Amino acid sequence: MVVKLLPGGCYVTSKDEVLDTVLGSCVSACIRNPRLRIGGMNHFMLPRPSGHGYDTWGSLASRATRYGSASMEQLINRILRAGGTRAELEVKIFGGGRVLSSLSDVGNLNVTFVREFLRQEGLRVVSEDVGDTCPRHVQYFPMSGRVRVKYLTARHSADVGSHEQSYLKGLERAPLAGEIDLF
Fold first, then answer.
1. Domain membership flag for residue 182
2. HEC profile for 109-166?
3. Residue 176: pLDDT above 70?
4. Structurally, how many domains does the chain consist of?
5. More confident residue, 137 or 168
6. Is position 183 within any domain?
7. Residue 38: φ, ψ to 5°
8. Is 80 exceeded by the pLDDT of residue 101?
């Protein structure tokens, strides 16, 4: 089965599934416990809410997976609750491209955020494909840890950029809901 992740999505499985997403400036982390064959993927657009720092966890917790700060916590927590162990987790990161010159370099902010987050959490990044100017179609196979990345054409950049701008505007209007466990 193929599971499609949109911005704000987070999915963990121990089944033979394919996790599929398209990334422009957004970032996806693919995290798994290889021994237990439990893995998942997230898809976030911004590192954290504008004007909030790492020391305001209460306000961030209510923002579910809209932002990298909450999305990363939720992905890791779901894997741990499914039986994964932190010491065995392997991480692969993708996306963070600069697909629209009219947007600030959100992709670079996302990549910087996710690298720093993973460093602080002591999690090892085994591979990454980040930056550049092209969008990516990413398929992750959590059971094996294999990833397939297809670079999309310039024509797709405009489409992905347009979707990202629409999603960004929707974030400003949508009510905040959801929960995560912070350790």
1. no
2. HHHHHHHHHHHHHCCEEEEEEECCCCCEEEEEECCCCEEEEEECCHHHHHHHHHHHHH
3. no
4. 1
5. 137
6. no
7. -115, 130
8. no
